[in-house]
C-alpha cells in the first residue's frame, strides 16, 4: 500500500490499494504531477517467533518481490520517496544512557528485520541510479487511532483485550520499546515530504521507552478510571527474533525540523479508551 493514511481524506493524497510487491500497478493512474511516495507497508509479515535465517536466504526468498516493487516505483516516477523502515527490528540492544542513533550498530535478528535492511539498500541503490531523493525513516513502535480503523501495536491490543475480556499475552514483560502516537508520526512525515533535508536517514521516536510491564500497568490504571478491567497478562517470554531493549534517539530530525512529538503516552492511552 502506498501513501500515508491521514486522519481525514485529502484530495492531495492518493492511496493505491494493491500489493506492490506482487502485482504491477496500473500505468493509467491519473497523476498530474510527480508524486511524493510514502511507502508504509512491507512484503514480509511480522513474525518474531524464530530467529532469522541467513542474509542470502532472505534475499533470494524475496528477490522477485523486491524487483517487482522497484518496477512499480518506476511507473509512478516520483519526485521523492519516503520509506517507513523499522528501528526496533534493526538496531542492536541499547542502553537508556546511550540510545541508538542513525550511526548505531544494526543487528536485525528476525527475518522481518533483515528484510527491512535489504529493502533499505535496494531503495538506496534505486535512488542513486535514478537520481530520485530518498528519505528512510526508522520508526519506533506506533500506536493510535488510524483512518483505516486497523488495530495495531501493544497499546491498542491491550485495550481490545479489556473490551473483549480476553487474556493479553506479553512477550517479555521487561522488553523495552519507544511508543509514538500516529498523529505525531503523520505530522513529521508530511514535513519531511515538504523539506529538503541534509540526510536520507532519520530515526523517528517519542524519545522515551517503556517496558511491556510499564505499558500494561498504565493501561490497567487508566481503564480502572473508567470502570473497566483487564485480565492479568500471560508472559510468554521474549521471542527469539526480538532484541530486548531498544532506546532510540531522534535528535537528528528534531534538530533539523524543530519537530517535537505532542502526545505523551498517558494522553495517548486515554484517547484510545474514550475515543
Question: What's this model, at a glance?
Answer:
The chain has 275 residues and is α/β, with parallel strands linked by helices.
Question: Can you tell me about this structure?
Answer:
The two termini are 26 Å apart. The N terminus is likely disordered. α1 links the parallel β1 and β2. Helices cover 35% and strands 13% of the residues. By secondary structure, it is of the alpha/beta class.
Walk me through the topology.
Elements: E1 36-39, H1 55-76, E2 80-86, H2 111-130, E3 134-139, E4 141-143, H3 153-164, E5 169-170, E6 176-181, H4 182-194, E7 201-204, E8 209-211, H5 212-225, E9 234-235, H6 251-257, H7 265-273
Parallel strand pairs: 1-2, 2-3, 3-7, 4-6, 5-9
Antiparallel strand pairs: 6-8
Helix pairs in contact: 1-2, 3-5, 5-7
Whole-number mean pLDDT = 86
Subunit arrangement of the protein: single chain
User: What's the total count of β strands?
Assistant: 9
Order of adjacent strands in the largest pleated sheet:
1-2-3-7
Regions with little confidence, pLDDT below 50 for 5+ residues: 1-8
> What profile does the largest beta sheet have?
4 strands, parallel
* Helix content class: 25-40%
**Helix/sheet category:** alpha/beta
* Distance separating the two termini: 26 Å
- The fraction of residues assigned to DSSP E strands is 5-15%
SSE series: EHEHEEHEEHEEHEHH
Shape: globular
H/I helix tally: 7
